Amino acid sequence: MPATPVTYTFLGPEGTFTEAALMQVPDAGGATRIPASNVNAALDMVRDGSADAAMVPIENSVEGGVTATLDAIAGGQELRIIREVLVPISFVLVARPGVRIDDIRRISTHGHAWAQCRLWVDANIPGAEYVAGSSTAAAAMGLLDGDAHYDAAICAPIVAQEQPGLTVLAENIGDNPGAVTRFILVSRPGALPERTGADKTTVVVPLPEDRPGALMEILDQFATRGVNLSRIESRPTGQYLGHYFFSIDADGHIADARVADALAGLHRISPATRFLGSYGRADAQSSSVAQHTSDEAFRAAHEWVEQILQGE
Amino acid sequence: MPATPVTYTFLGPEGTFTEAALMQVPDAGGATRIPASNVNAALDMVRDGSADAAMVPIENSVEGGVTATLDAIAGGQELRIIREVLVPISFVLVARPGVRIDDIRRISTHGHAWAQCRLWVDANIPGAEYVAGSSTAAAAMGLLDGDAHYDAAICAPIVAQEQPGLTVLAENIGDNPGAVTRFILVSRPGALPERTGADKTTVVVPLPEDRPGALMEILDQFATRGVNLSRIESRPTGQYLGHYFFSIDADGHIADARVADALAGLHRISPATRFLGSYGRADAQSSSVAQHTSDEAFRAAHEWVEQILQGE
Amino acid sequence: MPATPVTYTFLGPEGTFTEAALMQVPDAGGATRIPASNVNAALDMVRDGSADAAMVPIENSVEGGVTATLDAIAGGQELRIIREVLVPISFVLVARPGVRIDDIRRISTHGHAWAQCRLWVDANIPGAEYVAGSSTAAAAMGLLDGDAHYDAAICAPIVAQEQPGLTVLAENIGDNPGAVTRFILVSRPGALPERTGADKTTVVVPLPEDRPGALMEILDQFATRGVNLSRIESRPTGQYLGHYFFSIDADGHIADARVADALAGLHRISPATRFLGSYGRADAQSSSVAQHTSDEAFRAAHEWVEQILQGE
Amino acid sequence: MPATPVTYTFLGPEGTFTEAALMQVPDAGGATRIPASNVNAALDMVRDGSADAAMVPIENSVEGGVTATLDAIAGGQELRIIREVLVPISFVLVARPGVRIDDIRRISTHGHAWAQCRLWVDANIPGAEYVAGSSTAAAAMGLLDGDAHYDAAICAPIVAQEQPGLTVLAENIGDNPGAVTRFILVSRPGALPERTGADKTTVVVPLPEDRPGALMEILDQFATRGVNLSRIESRPTGQYLGHYFFSIDADGHIADARVADALAGLHRISPATRFLGSYGRADAQSSSVAQHTSDEAFRAAHEWVEQILQGE
């Protein structure tokens, strides 16, 4: 990644939570921002150089793409996560000016957003019919077309703010008020983000098929070096059911000796292990490091062994 | 679950891969089958007794619902998985009679299906525009309406077979020809499916927050009894980011002593552990059991300890 | 073991540290006490009913017998440890009346006691020659014979106190002033000592030869139930070098659910595992028990599994 | 250690099994051989330069010194094991010429040898009385003195062969005919013995007191790198009861990457870990090394991590 990317892509269209995530990146406001129609398209723009980095959802998203992102980044030409961003998930109900809640019969939004607002809809607009939208933003923008088959849309606050043609009929209509979701900024391999002391490292580890207990061996590489995991998911490789890889987030930066050592252990067990990046945690929470897994402990241990080997 | 459920629900609408999965259940053909608009709705019909069981996607689905299913079944009133079903994922391109491939400008389908057919579409209908559909079947059925804004749909073969008003323009257009996906049949708690010797047990384990290394402790409950895991996923609880539960598929049936013992271990570590069912594997592959984790070894060990405690 | 053993044996002769250990047993003062010439002889007296219990050294002894005890109790007819006793190791130098330190040329004691007083002897009686004794007490008593080939003996304070014919020339001459050693009281199998809350359980576990990683599996049975180990020793079985058994002391009583469960796990892995007893710790230090390994957690987990199995 | 030590010491006196072990060292026949009165004395001769190397018992010995050796080598100025030797344990009964078995009333030998010949003595010389000897050889040689208080001795065959004044009355009188015991040759730190492919590494690891589960952590350092253990013993440190160190023999040489890495892990957990040597196994049995713990796997993993750190 160049020091200052000038072209960003993101899971579009404009007005989604993903764009809201991108806007948290310091220089994104003044950069070129290109919406992509799906996660693969966004990542491919980075791979082929059309964009410097892509913002895509990685967890719990209202607009899908989570497992798609896990799978897309696990294969193909290597990419690197260089930042994570948290976005509060807050939904608004929008319609064209003059429309009242009582007038609403059909509502469009992304399927996941619909699922997260069902309780509110059932309580406030009983009997409302769902119309599929490819994203929350697309559903909202569709209202501005003359031929929309629905009366209202559920979308992110960002859309309503930017579109004078839409009226907000209700705010915070999500069933889980404190919901937050996580996005990642993905770039081509290059210089690693600097260690901040509150970092996260993401790897993809194919499960060796020829050895029972391989999963425990994989996780033990982290445990034995005191490295905590904050996410683990087994994913079928897609080749055939039964072959798996693991997508794992671990605390710490590969520049931390305990993380580097754990990754070396993973590589031995599963040589096709893929490093997806070390980057600052969005919540900036550093985890405590025991003395015996500190960089200093690793350095001292290495020196001790070297001295023995040299017969000193 | 009654011996013979008479009412099934499934993630609808009719014609989806989920209905194809349901049709593999022996008595489903003659039973009432009610499509549900989303996974939660399907599960709620089981919970409130409107249906005896629900078929929903659990892995790698083209129609989403995977993480939705994991989350929906992990909370709320308890449910039980009583069967798993594998369905080959094969896509067809359909249109109204008389439409040719060269005429197609806009294609509708579910977003996941679209992602899985992109290579074929790019190669064969370059420039085709995507129109979001709430499911593959809904996209196909929409073609029969007079006011569809698209010319073709991508859907499961089952739809085309049942709808004389649709023509199949191309078959097997998925980018991953051998794709298979997995569905589960969910019921209310009751008598367990009988042990077949090739079984799977699904549990949901909230991660205890107050103890470092808890994930390793959880997994060790399986490893120390020789129980293999075939799936593991960490999921945020939704309460706030950073709290997790694990959704785990383990080999074996709770009627196997090693599985029962592992589950007891999980319950001690995380008392809110939820048992989601023991059921026959769709692939009927039994895993070998070491002598020291056999039912006989557990029985002998239990007797040995009891004799000591009784001072014999 | 009868409620009140009336005949004790111990690693003799009279006047050793082992007899001092036996005297700590509440009813030993008034009971018959028979010295045995070696550990095997003492244990055999218990096995054949000639004695109700035997006191023998188990750790760090000045008079040997440690590995002999480990091996003797690991094989043959089953025995049970019913108590452990700690004895401070304090040495005195004794001689016949009239003999002064400057007169001493040759000193007798047990080889281990000699090793533990070498610094004092080198500093205070330089050039003194060592004469082997079969025990500290035998060396001291030998001075009373007319034909002793040595001038002084190193022994336990207990001997000097009981023998008017011996004079103490120096006290506390051991090189390690705070030394303490551990003894065990061994009986035939019978009712277990009651749980005190500060207990210890001893087992002998033959290492299964046919499975790599068996040692870790064995130790994991304790670790996974939160049971600490206070001693572990690998011992060759004596059949041929390379076959091992492990002698292990674990915190807790077999009446503690976590210990019973760990022992059942050992029995599965190594069916010839031998239970050597649960008994109160000599230091009465109880170890803290995590909530998830408490008896209550085991009971609740067992009930939970049973309810599932019964389809409730 | 110089390439060819010219002065050896051993646990004496001459004629013990330890000297028999020393005679197996290729150049020992022509070297100076100095008997030491105990293990500490032998090791101290090496430490102060009076000898180049010391042969001492390390396992299952008939003449004691095992735990003494473990403890003596664990503390004090650092020493290194450079070779291990196996010696078959075979006992003979010797007396002065003219003495017949029926004449024997009192027998002398080392206490451990006595324990190992008890069955034979009970069967063949019922009622024979035991006279303590400081070693088997000392007991035999004592017969040549005019004032011996016993009629016969149990000793190693080597003594009888070299002493024309002794007659062998019975051979192979040990109760365990296949007994073998193990000795080690100890030197000052210096160049390591070369890797043979069938090596053993010995370490002493103080148990960190401040962390529960430390023992499992220690053993896991070996297990996670596929390094088997052939011996483990917990030993009290002698400071006060309850503080322990572990004496461990592991398969492999510190020049093997998996062993070096495991030792580095030990050093981190317990910085006072002491390396006692890597040396060829007496039985020359090499253990198989899994691909993922080979030197090549370690090298490849290290390079992979380095490339990532350098942003390649």
UniProtKB/TrEMBL annotation, chains A, B, C, D:
Top class in the EC scheme: lyase
Domain of life, per lineage: Bacteria
The protein, known as: Prephenate dehydratase
Pathway it works in: Amino-acid biosynthesis; L-phenylalanine biosynthesis; phenylpyruvate from prephenate: step 1/1
Biological process annotations from GO: L-phenylalanine biosynthetic process
Lineage summary: Bacteria, Bacillati, Actinomycetota, Actinomycetes, Micrococcales
Site (Essential for prephenate dehydratase activity): 181
Molecular function terms from GO: prephenate dehydratase activity
Keywords: Amino-acid biosynthesis, Aromatic amino acid biosynthesis, Lyase, Phenylalanine biosynthesis
Organism field: Pseudarthrobacter sulfonivorans
Listed CDD domains: ACT_CM-PDT, PBP2_Aa-PDT_like
Domain named ACT: residues: 203-280
